[in-house]
Amino acid sequence: MKPHQNTTVKSAKSADRDSRTYAIIGAAMEVHREMGCGYNELIFQDALEVEFELRGIPCTREQPYHVFYKGHKLPSHLRPDFVCFGEVIVELKALSEISGREESQVLGYLKGTGFQTGLLINFGSPSLFHQRFIHSSKWLPEAAAERSTDRADFAE
Question: Which of 130, 121, 100, 142 is nearest to 13 (CA)?
Fold first, then answer.
């Protein structure tokens, strides 16, 4: 998938390490090392939530976030698998291959929540796949840019 002009895709070998994403990826690697690749996504979510707790990584699981269209709050919500450290979207998959569809899902979560950093992690292959996304808030639609300043726009 070709990244959108306002999104940077960072590889795992990137020189600029983010300690938050590094910690999240480390936890995912431990889960993958222990469990392998034969389970469904829900099992990996459960295991990763335990690993986050063991490592002291703060997270919320499937927290609903409002979606806006032209200033109107829509009845549907975004529900990323995890939000860690209060601002890093973590989307898990258990697929044999990742496509542009899964990458677009992470980008949609970033745009919709106003968060800048997202991880796509796939447990569905013999080697753990992870991809980091950085989304610039200067390109966000006005409603999302406003939400990105207070980060309190989750559904209750």
Answer: 130
**How many helices (H) and strands (E) would you count in the chain?**
4, 8
Query: What separation in angstroms does the CA of 107 have from each of 2, 10, 14, 47, 71?
Result: 12, 13, 19, 24, 20
Tell me how far apart the alpha carbons of residues 138 and 27 are, in angstroms, rounded to a whole number.
31
The Cβ of residue 140 has, within 10 Å, a number of other Cβ atoms equal to 20
User: How many angstroms separate the Cα of 150 from the Cα of each of 30, 143, 153?
Assistant: 33, 12, 8
Q: Global pTM?
A: 0.79
Cα–Cα dist 67/154, whole Å: 9
Residue 143 has pLDDT above 60, yes or no: no
Domain segments of the chain: what residues? Answer: 18-150
Residue 71: CB atoms within 10 Å = 9
At position 108, the amino acid (one-letter code) is G
Per-residue tokens: 114:
């106003």
Q: What is the mean pLDDT of residues 33-60?
A: 97
Cα end-to-end distance, the chain, whole Å: 34
